[in-house]
Amino acid sequence: MLTREEDIDAHALSARGWTISAIARHLGRDRKTIRAYLNGDRQPGFRACTTPDPFEPFAIYCAARLAEDPHLWATTLYDELLELGYGFSYPTLTRQLRIRSLRPACEPCRPATGRAVAVIEHPPGEETQWDWVDLPDPPAHWGWGRCAHLLVGALSHSSRWRGRLCPSMDQPHLIDALDRVTRALGGCTDVWRFDRMATVINPGTGRVQASFAAVAKHYGVQVRACPPRRGNRKGVVEKANHVAAQRFWRTLPDDVTPEQAQQVLDTWCAKRGDTRLRPTSDGKASVVTVAAAEPLRPAPAAPFPATLSVTRVVSAQALVSFRGNRYSVAPELAGATVTVTLRLGAGHLDIATETGTVIARHTLAPEGAGAMVRDHGHVLALEHAAITAATSARPHRSKQRIPPGPAARAAADTLRTRTSGSPTTPGAAGAEVVIDLARYAAAAAARTTPPPAAPAGDK
């Protein structure tokens, strides 16, 4: 059985014109096995086991012991297993420990700094290094949240690099960025080296993800994982990450769109990055000159058909923005959230509701063209909705004189009649009470006038 890495290598070597016999000798496998995998008759990682694994009963004990003590010698573990009935050899034990990755890595014992660094030779056309770099605080109008992501691809030999801005690091965006950067670099190398990103390499096992194996076969490349905690193994792309952050992202204006920012990056790489001088056997030459001599294979005619999905909010004009263009939907969806789906390599995109119902399909416009792609039915529906909602009446003036009308005057007469027939002061029901104000005046005068003096004889 071939491992997934060997299966990818076999397809990559076959795409380069190697014969089945040569591939079998290179991988140390039988020719019939190689032919079966190349023809698709067998899949990596699947093999029916006809006999039980004799080491399986001891694997649990080994995993527990090594989890307790990662530094336990294999010879000591072998002595313990002999007491438990282990009947195989010591090399079998060490092989099973490696295959099953039972010994965990001890971080304090594996520092990443202060160690000697070897010089690694990078033959022309052999390797492309890939890595994500997080770019904080993108412009708010992009709608990308707190961080933008840049996939950087660098040719190890010439150090030529290109990057692709993405709102997400999921696998469809990764595949789209891989294809675009590969074409910008001029073609495919023999090997793609990745950091241990989860969309390509299983972080736990270090093996290629099954979902990415088909992508590697499509481009005819071999996938290599960078060893953990060995960032200098991919120092070319790490330096490109540093340059992209300091010389591109740090000075990017706030008023640019993602498409304009991508154009700024591409222009900088062509004018500044490719003009750097590199030492060669004949002296010094520019990066673009060294890269032009690399034997790169042409990229496939079409990108790998991954499906890319993003969410968007429909504008008041019933338009959906996607990669620098706007696409129409029905006017009833203004303000709603929709999903834009694009199959890489296709000439159209689909717009669906949150429930997954496709409501529009449009021809894909060139990226960043500022085009407005509208369906004729959507145009008519929007115009009808706008005409229906519009009115030709003049708005009311705030200082206009509007006296009470006939209806208001009739209601006022009814209120006056009702009021005049009801008592307003205490008294008999239905009787009109007349108040004479002269009596109140006399009473007030009497209270303020002092009484007359008494006669003398009355004392």
UniProtKB/TrEMBL annotation:
Name assigned to this protein: Transposase
Q: Which residues form a coiled coil?
A: none
Low complexity bias located where? Answer: 407-419
Residue numbers spanned by region Disordered = 390-430
Position of the signal peptide: none
Which residue intervals define the domain Integrase catalytic in the entry?
A: 120-294
Q: Which family does it belong to?
A: Belongs to the transposase IS21/IS408/IS1162 family.
Read off the Pfam families from this record. Answer: Mu-transpos_C_2
Q: Name one GO molecular function term.
A: nucleic acid binding
What's the superkingdom here? Bacteria
What biological process terms from GO does the record include? DNA integration
InterPro entries the UniProt entry points to: Integrase_cat-core, IstA-like_C, RNaseH-like_sf, RNaseH_sf
